[in-house]
Amino acid sequence: MTSPSSIERADRLNADCHCVSLDRARLEAELERVSPGFHDEVMTGRPHLFSDSVAFVGAEHVRRMARLVAAVERVVTLPAWREHVLAWAPESAHHRCAAPGVFLGYDFHLGASGPQLIEINTNAGGGLLNALLARAQKACCDDVEALLPGDLAGDTAEHLFLEMFRAEWRAFGGGDTPTRIAIVDEAPQTQYLYPEFVLFRRLFEHAGIAAVICDPQELAFRDGALWHGSERIDLVYNRLTDFALDAPANAALRAAWLTDAALITPHPQAHALYADKRNLVALSNDALLAKWGVDAETRATLANKIPRTELVLAENADDLWARRKQLFFKPAAGYGSKAAYRGDKVTKRVFEEVLAGSYIAQALVPPSSRTLKVGEAPVELKLDLRNYVYMGHVQLIAARLWQGQTTNFRTPGGGFAPVLTVPQGES
């Protein structure tokens, strides 16, 4: 008898396992460890941050995603790649930094031909939240019990993330450990993922690193250094979506970045090298990659796992409109699915806005699905996978479950979900 593949088993579990695996009491306990009342603070206004169940992914799909990550990393190291992408990058991205930047997010849909890279982000959120979520799971049935992590009380992911920041600081030339870190975002307490900022502050402080959560306007650049009040900042964990640091409110950060007065991570050049959506046009252009000397195996990996992507140009308007139902439109510097549109939902008015902006069009790859019971009825949710990556190494894989045109945290039963890797079946 032929054993089912890991992919077939994962598909079956995603369709048929409706179990609730999230232990809400354990989740509350994990959050309350941060500070009394933190659980209520996190969940108030965020009822769909965490799904009640897990998502299943076949081991072969996990390996394929890792191969794609490695292939992209090989291309990004090429001088020709740097020259190509920096040609359209903002001025601040031309400043070089030895630290590669924390928390690359490689986002995939599981298409008919396997994992397809939808986009890369440089300030991928949710890593620490998902590490906590994984520890709050319980085995809900025999199928799941064998797939749960062996040590739910461990803090492997947290330790990995902490060492990543230390590695950044060493690459910057700052020694083993920074003295003080600023976790920076615009009006941080109003951000949906603000609880994660609190978790990072706790992680840093437990490691003996002073940490503050602040708005960029609370920072000052003076005497060749970056300051928060009277405290000098060594490292900024940058959660801003002003990737070029061009906004007036980010002037102090920009000055610190351009003078190496503090390590900003992730930084403008990391965004230019990885996350500008126009980069996907080059990564899916086999002839261009061959011209740069990219080897055949790497090119094949990219061709198989990156949907064809093209620039939206006014001169191609009629052709793009005719093919719109097979396309997904994204702004070149976009993030969080903002101003992104499925072609089959695009009106003429919106299409004119797309043409007037700086957009790419990507071959549409519908997400796979996860069926869960919401109340008493089974509900089919869309599923995508985020690989948290540092220096080519996949640190953690998490799923997002949702309904609607783009990913969101507004769907009952949806939200972040741990990913369980399904091994090959036995005959």
Short description:
The chain is 35% helix and 24% strand.
Specify the number of helices.
16
**Which range does the strand content fall in?**
15-25%
Which structural class best describes the helix and strand composition?
alpha+beta
Radius of gyration: 22 Å
Parts with pLDDT < 50 across at least 5 consecutive residues = 150-155
> Roughly how much helix do the residues carry, as a percent range?
25-40%
User: What is the CATH C level class of one domain, in words?
Assistant: Alpha Beta
| CATH fold group of one domain | Dna Ligase, domain 1
Shape: globular
CATH architecture of one domain: 2-Layer Sandwich
Q: What oligomerization state is this entry in?
A: single chain
> Quick check: average pLDDT?
91
The main β sheet shows up as: 7 strands, mixed
**Whole-Å distance between the termini?**
6 Å
Strand count: 18
